[in-house]
């Protein structure tokens, strides 16, 4: 599913939020997009470190974080599932678009403890609900809160949302 064609509202929201900052994605996410995204620094995780024109390729999360920190911009993680899972302990803010239609798929956003996140903004759209969450608890000592935040940008289908929001009544999942 290519977000900008199926959900242009989500694409516009991602574009606005990440403009002028740094985005981090895995190699498969990059290949799905097919090109570096404009008006932002593009970091691509690839253990083989195959060069990509218009993007910086990093071999590990630590390498990507070191590079991003030197740029002095906010870091936005845009996928895929493995990158989300590795970065979840380090992220301070999640900008999640909860899509209202189910799509077949085998890749899901990692489960997270909803009690550790506070909803700070909600925007309703016809096809999705955009929710911004801020972490309630302190981050791991290895990744202390810094001057530049680490953020998630994610789009979840309603089926994956059910498994992600453990202990939340179904009426609150915007199905």
What pattern of helices and strands is seen along the backbone? Answer: HHEHEEHEHEEEEH
Largest sheet entry:
8 strands, mixed
Q: List low-pLDDT spans.
A: 140-148, 156-175
Number of strands: 8
**What sort of overall outline do the alpha carbons produce when their principal axes are compared?**
globular
Compute the number of structural domains. 1
Number of helices: 6
- Category from helices, strands and their pairing: alpha/beta
Radius of gyration: 16 Å
**What is the architecture at the second tier of CATH?**
3-Layer(aba) Sandwich
CATH-defined superfamily: Dihydrofolate Reductase, subunit A
Widest sheet, order of strands = 3-2-1-4-8-5-7-6
Describe the structure in your own words.
The protein has six helices and eight strands, in the order ααβαββαβαββββα. It is an alpha/beta fold and 175 residues long. Strands 3-2-1-4-8-5-7-6 form an eight-stranded mixed sheet, with helices on both faces. The longest helix has 11 residues, at 8-18. 28% of the residues are buried.
Which features does this protein show?
175 residues; alpha/beta; 8-stranded mixed beta sheet; 8 strands; globular; disordered C terminus
Question: Would you summarize the structure shown here?
Answer:
With 175 residues, this protein is an alpha/beta fold. The protein has one domain (3-172): 3-Layer(aba) Sandwich (Dihydrofolate Reductase, subunit A), CATH 3.40.430. It is built from 6 helices and 8 strands, in the order ααβαββαβαββββα.
């Amino acid at each position: 599913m290519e977000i900008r064609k199926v959900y242009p509202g989500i694409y516009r929201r991602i574009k606005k939020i990440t403009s002028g900052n740094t985005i981090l994605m895995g190699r498969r996410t990059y290949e799905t997009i097919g090109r570096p995204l404009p008006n932002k620094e593009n970091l691509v995780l690839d253990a083989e470190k195959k060069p990509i024109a218009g993007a910086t390729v990093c071999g590990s999360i630590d390498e990507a974080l070191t590079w991003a920190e030197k740029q002095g911009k906010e870091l936005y993680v845009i996928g895929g599932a493995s990158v989300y899972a590795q970065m979840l302990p380090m992220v301070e803010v999640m900008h999640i678009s909860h899509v209202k239609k189910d799509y077949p798929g085998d890749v899901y956003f990692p489960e997270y403890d909803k009690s550790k996140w506070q909803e700070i903004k909600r925007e309703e759209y016809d096809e999705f609900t955009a929710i911004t969450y801020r972490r309630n608890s302190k981050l791991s000592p290895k990744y202390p809160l810094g001057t530049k935040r680490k953020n998630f940008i994610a789009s979840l289908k309603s089926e994956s949302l059910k498994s992600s929001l453990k202990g939340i009544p179904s009426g609150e999942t915007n199905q």
